[in-house]
Amino acid sequence: MAEKSSTKIEEVVDLRTKLNGIFKRKRRTLEEDREIKRERRQTRRNSHESHSENGDSTELEKIHEGITQRALFDDEDCLKIEKKIDEVVANAEKGRYREKTVDRAPLRIKYFFGEGYTYGKQMSERGPGQERLYARGVVDDIPKWIFDMVERKIVDAGIVPKNFINSAVINDYQPGGCIVSHIDPGHIFDRPIVSASFFSASSLCFGCKFSFKPIRTTTPVLSLPISRGCVTVLSGYAADGITHCIRPQDVTERRAVIILRRVYDNAPRLPLNYKPEKNNRNHSLRERSRSPRKARERTSDSDSEDEPWYMKNRMRSDHYKENRKHRNSARDSE
Ligand SMILES: O=C(O)CCC(=O)C(=O)O
Fold first, then answer.
1. Mind giving me the DSSP string for 107-168?
2. What are the residue boundaries of the Alpha-ketoglutarate-dependent dioxygenase AlkB-like domain, all occurrences included (predicted)?
């Protein structure tokens, strides 16, 4: 009898050891999995983590003086905000927004809330200073979640005062998407310009020149890493003295940014009956194929449309010569 019960105890102990072993192995593989994922995330992040600088030191100093970055949103915050961005995308696909809220380009969609404005080919009179706000009410109001989940943290961090922000733009980029070099129009937007980045890391480049078909850029004066969850604040020379852009090669995964700005009370505004030009992208969307190959082919065209004055201005000024030199050297290096 005593012998039988001791065998049972041994069996139980043996079973426990076996189970422990199995759980330990499972725990280890889970931990290893997590570690591998962490390393992959880190590698991806590192590729956007180092500054690269090519300007003269005085100019670089002036740019850096006008940039502040804060890691304000942790992973949990990011996940919640990213879910909300996905809801915006879904609402737009269901046609739930006003006509001017959504502006589609092949690899980048902009959602304007609070205020929208004309730029690029949407303007009949082009050139710096020609941008105009749309009439009040033609874009949707800023969603409450942007105030609750994004603006509040930025106000609490002392970056802008309460009630400063009256315009929020979400840019949703697919890999290879970009925003060509520009300065946010100073007659429309107050400074600072605040942006919060989500989904993946990228780089904000300063002082790049773009050429098209195929799309190319010159080496930036400064390439600033922007990680997921970080808030970038531009003012001074960084906002007004040099252009900024997102290059196609810096968007390797889907990325979204929420740009929070203040539109001046007296900024010039279009009348309510303003008729957009024929080639407004919102209207042409239905006619466009969604094929990724066609989208890539179209990128250069439509992104040049985004540039409010840069291309045209260059054709008229000294920049033209500089651009021609760049095009020639790009061709030579082919
Ligand atoms: O994507 C970004 O971080 C910058 C976007 C930007 O400069 C713009 O939309 O005006």
1. TEEEEEES--B--GGG-SS-STT---BPPTTSSBPPPHHIIIIIIHHHHHTTSS-TT---EE
2. 93-250
Q: Is residue 2 part of a domain?
A: no
Q: Is the Cβ atom of 132 under 6 angstroms away from ligand 1?
A: no
Regarding the beta carbon of 323 and ligand 1, being less than 6 Å apart is answered no
Q: Is there a domain that residue 21 lies in?
A: no
In this prediction, residue 122 carries a pLDDT of: 60
From 150, 169, 174, 204, the mutation candidate for ligand 1 (largest count of ligand atoms within 8 A of CB) is 204
Domain count, the chain: 1
Average the pLDDT over each of 2-6, 174-178, 245-249, 320-324 and give the range with the smallest value.
320-324
Please check whether residue 15 lies inside any domain of the structure: no
Residue nearest to atom 10 of ligand 1 (CA): 184
- In this structure, the residue with its CA closest to atom 7 of ligand 1 is 245
Task: Clarify whether 111 is annotated catalytic.
Answer: no
Q: Does the beta carbon of 183 sit less than 6 angstroms from any atom of ligand 1?
A: no
74 in a structural domain? yes
By CB atoms closer than 10 A (0-12, 13-18, 19+), residue 192 is buried
Work out the average pLDDT over 196-218: 96
Domain, as residue range, for 128: 60-263
Instruction: Give the CATH number, domain containing residue 203.
Output: 2.60.120.590
